[in-house]
Amino acid sequence: MLVIYLKLKVLFFNVLFIFLIFCIYFFIFLFREIFYRIYLMSKYSKLIILGSGPAGYTAALYSSRANLNPIIITGLNKGGQLTTTNNIENWPGIINPISGTDLMNNMHDHVKRFNVEIIYDHISSVDFSSKPFFLQGDYQSYIADSVIVATGANPRSIGISSEKRFLGKGVSSCATCDGFFYKGEKVAVIGGGNVAIEEVLYLSNICNHVYLIHRRNYFTAEKILLDRLNIKIKEGKVTVYFNYILYEILGNDNGVNGILIHSSKENNNDLKLDISCVFIAIGYIPNTKIFSKQLILEDGYIKVKSGLYGFYTETSISGVFAAGDVIDRVYRQAVTSAATGCMAALDADKYLNI
Prior knowledge:
alpha/beta, elongated, FAD/NAD(P)-binding domain, seven-stranded mixed β-sheet, thioredoxin-disulfide reductase (NADPH) activity, 8 helices, 2 domains, five-stranded parallel β-sheet, disulfide bond
């Protein structure tokens, strides 16, 4: 019996040893396959810029001139939300009005002049836990020594079909951008927070009259803004409709000419307002979802270092920088996005050359 036990024991350890050898070879093979597929087949760049709006293109312009040979990955909306703006009159140096699409095409051509590689792809996941950084796109994967996130933010929409149909033709999300085109006319603003009240205050100085439509019976904006709003109401420049929602946007081939608003309290109590433009001001959604477990965010916006001593645009991870609307919940202008894109490129250049 003892001999049989010893033989079985030897057999067991031999089988176990063979099994362990097999596991080791299997995991080595698996690791090599993963490494080959993810890294060796990934496109490498010293610097990858995510986003093709003013921030992304400006970052590419400055980083290419610093010989960083950046790659731009455009995202789904090439050119960013600026492409939905019909006329831009506040871009420094461009005297005559230019469409958002034309401005972004000019920026595209500008960076191409410096041989920037532009790839139409959408990044669905990132791994910033180790270096080089790994990014997975819909069409291929990428690795980079440094990344600039300039994925922008999208205005929240009401969600009605006519909103999309008249976008850029009397439906806007930016009074500073488009308000001037409705100077002396009647307009409407939808919302009740800081963004909406700020839009109303701005428009009340240039438009004939502003209708403010809010679904609740109270505002959520800061008191100082509400004090300024009350002054405009007393001056007869603003009319507020509480407990109303935007039901339909009316218009024709020339653009918007009115809206229907529906009472959120009483059935069949609809009002028609004759206006030339409706500004949707119910907030913005930063395009930062894929970074939520990678970077420190604040209300969805990427938190950057800021300060006075450089690396202003650096995020919570060294080597990852952010620019444009993903870090800006206040100004949200094309020119400010471009400015932070420049800063991010300079920060990335300094980081890569330390």
